[in-house]
Amino acid sequence: MTVTSNIRPTLILASTSPRRQELITTLGLPVMVRPSHADEKTPGDWSPDRIVEELANRKARAVWESVRGTMKTAAVVVGSDTIVVLDGRVMGKPKDPEEAFEMLSRLAGNTHEVYTGVSCIGLMDGQTVTNHRVTKVRMRQLSPDQIRRYVQTGEPLDKAGAYGVQGVGALLVDSLEGCYFNVVGLPLSLLAVQLEQFGVTLP
Ligand SMILES: Cc1cn([C@H]2C[C@H](O)[C@@H](COP(=O)(O)OP(=O)(O)OP(=O)(O)O)O2)c(=O)[nH]c1=O
């Protein structure tokens, strides 16, 4: 897609995540949201970076396929995927409170990595840029009671690794090394770099 610097493409966010929807508005470009229902299964031997880049691209591609041909304005479809990795073991979203408790018991007192993949696809020509970022997060020691109380807030259930650093989960996190927004699900500086490759000028 050729976008000259005075054109502001619409960003089509391929996501159901309210966090991503809020974060993407920071770029100051028009935003449309189109939930993507891409298959999120990957082979067990894939590396974390391969998983998040592939899933981000699947989400973006599914939406790109459904909207191309229906819009005439310049647009870029954005897909994103986040996982938590502890000692090489991948954690997605917990399926129930019991699994959330297990995940948090493993993360407490340890340092893990949060991987987020972002994939951008130009609406007109399908130009694709896909990358990922990694952030290290140190979680403090937690007693089983503390973990139980946090799980009862309901916050862990729709989040990779069963916590949300932007919410009550902030009380569990000792320190963080890398992009904060990567942990929340959309690394904004990475997205800015990717959009520059489409000729978009941002502040
Ligand atoms: C670790 C962490 C994850 N998360 C969230 C970001 C993602 O929304 C979610 C990981 O699940 P994803 O599968 O990446 O995304 P999603 O299902 O929420 O949304 P969609 O696929 O439609 O875009 O975990 C937080 O909000 N805060 C955190 O601190």
From TrEMBL:
Entry keywords, A to Z: Cytoplasm, Hydrolase, Nucleotide metabolism
Signal peptide span: none
Superkingdom, taxonomy of origin: Bacteria
Cellular compartments annotated: Cytoplasm
One cellular component term from this protein's GO annotations in UniProt: cytoplasm
Protein name, per record: dTTP/UTP pyrophosphatase
Alphabetized Gene3D superfamilies for the sequence: 3.90.950.10
BP GO terms, sorted: nucleotide metabolic process
Cofactor(s) listed: a divalent metal cation
UniProt-recorded Gene Ontology molecular function terms: dTTP diphosphatase activity; UTP diphosphatase activity
Family of the protein in this entry: Belongs to the Maf family. YhdE subfamily.
InterPro entries in alphabetical order: ITPase-like_fam, Maf-like
